[in-house]
Amino acid sequence: MKTLLRAWFGEYRRIVGDPGAGVLLILIGAVLLYAVIYPYPYRQEVLLDVPVAVVDLDRTAVSRSLVQAIDATQTGTVAARPVDMAAARRLWAAGAIDGICLIPKDFSRRLQRGEAATVTVFCDGSYVYLYKAVFRSLASAVGDMAGRLEIRTLMAGGLPAAAARKARDPLPLERVYLFNPAGGYASYVVPAIFVMILQQTLIMSIGLLDGTANEAARTPGTRPCGWIEAGERVLGRAMAYVPVHLVFSIFLLVLLIRWHHYPQRAAAGEVLLFILPLLLAAVFLGITIARAFPARECVLPVLLIVSIPMFMLSGLSWPMGAMPSWLQFLVGMIPSTSGIQGFYAINHMGATLAEVAPIYVRLWSLAGVYFFTAVLATRSAPAQRAAAGPVQK
Questions:
Q1: Which of 329, 330, 357, 333 is nearest to 345 (CA)?
Q2: CA–CA separation, 381 vs 237, rounded Å?
Q3: pTM of the entire predicted model
Q4: How confident is the model at residue 244 (pLDDT cuts 50, 70, 90)?
């Protein structure tokens, strides 16, 4: 117990005494700063009023009604009406618009003859979210106009209005957005970023402290400590970080989610129980990989670089089932991968801990594996012995 307590309170002394208060800035400042910065760009939740240009070569009352319908959609707004496609391309190249709708010259004439009239929509497929917004607004306006014309044609043939509407859409589709009623992007991505923040601030803080110790540890003749002593040191260090990050977990995953009105179906106690093994696994992983940093200057560049791939491979931007099996195994070894998936299940979908038992067990398994590797790293770490006190026989 003496070794455990010395490692516990010694870690707090190292954090407070870190040069330039770098670890404190990451542990406290980064959490608060990220909590404010990340949700802010996505406050609108849904992309609205995307500027599009309509090239109306028909210039009739029918084509003008289509332009008005496009402008009335929720996701798009007619920002320009160039006279031809060349002018529309110039607007696109200048970044003034995000899509183009081309109404052909014989649009109304074809409709009057009962022929198919084609409306061409140009979207930027390299920007998926903008592409969906532009295509949705233009396709919605064109579809609504086609429906009205079809109902009018059926009524002209003697069909009553109610029967014409039913004949136009005999199998109506009702969309129900489960677990994210607003269909918001922030509700989808920001909670995952909060989970990633908890993991990365832990690993960065431990890496900075151990990187500094690795620079200073040049003591010849030191011998490895025993397994029990190394385990006590690892647990003592975990006791210094986990309680603090449990408080941060309440702040990020409960209070802020409630403040921003994101979906929230989990109680604070469930969140803490679920996030506990993730924090332990992150601490033990940080102690393990900190031995690879010869100096503290190496920590932030490396961890910042790998943070984006870890987030992109967490299954949020691309389904895990669509990844190669070897890559699924690799990213499954990252605590935040299981943490994000499990947190979404209990917070957004209202699952219980029993229902996410496979993910929960996986997190505890990762905590156990990385505890073992952290003990191995601590046994051969002169810097840790110097920081925790003399080696006891």
A1: 357
A2: 14
A3: 0.83
A4: very high
Contact partners, residue 138, CB within 8 Å, separation at least 6 = 52, 70, 73, 76, 99, 101, 119, 121
The residue assigned the tokens 């949700």 is 39
Q: 151, 161 in Cβ contact below 8 A?
A: yes
Nearest CA-CA partner of 352 in 273, 270, 255: 270
Q: What is the dihedral of CA 347, 349, 350, 351, to 10 degrees?
A: -100
Segment 2-8 shows an average pLDDT of: 82
Residue 123 has phi, psi (to 5 degrees) of -130, 155
What does the block give as tokens for 24? Answer: 């404190």
Adjacent-strand bridge partners of 78:
52
> Residues 271, 253: contact at Cβ < 8 Å?
yes
Q: Is the pLDDT of residue 215 over 90?
A: no
Could you tell me if 168 and 143 are in contact, meaning their C-beta atoms sit under 8 angstroms apart? no
Could you give phi then psi for residue 185, rounded to 5 degrees?
Answer: -75, -40
**How far apart, in whole angstroms, are the C-alpha atoms of residue 74 and residue 46?**
10
What per-residue confidence (pLDDT) applies to 318? Answer: 87
Q: For the residues 208-225, what does the mean pLDDT come to?
A: 66
Q: Is 98 left (phi over 0), alpha (psi -120 to 50) or beta?
A: alpha
Mean pLDDT of 81-92: 94
- Between 223 and 221, where is the model more confident? 223
Is the separation of the CB atoms in 34 and 171 below 8 Å?
Answer: no
Element spanning 51, H or E: strand 50-56
**pLDDT for 136-176, tens place per residue?**
888 888 888 888 888 887 887 788 888 887 887 787 888 88
Q: What is the DSSP letter of 373?
A: H
Is the distance from CB of 5 to CB of 236 less than 8 angstroms? yes
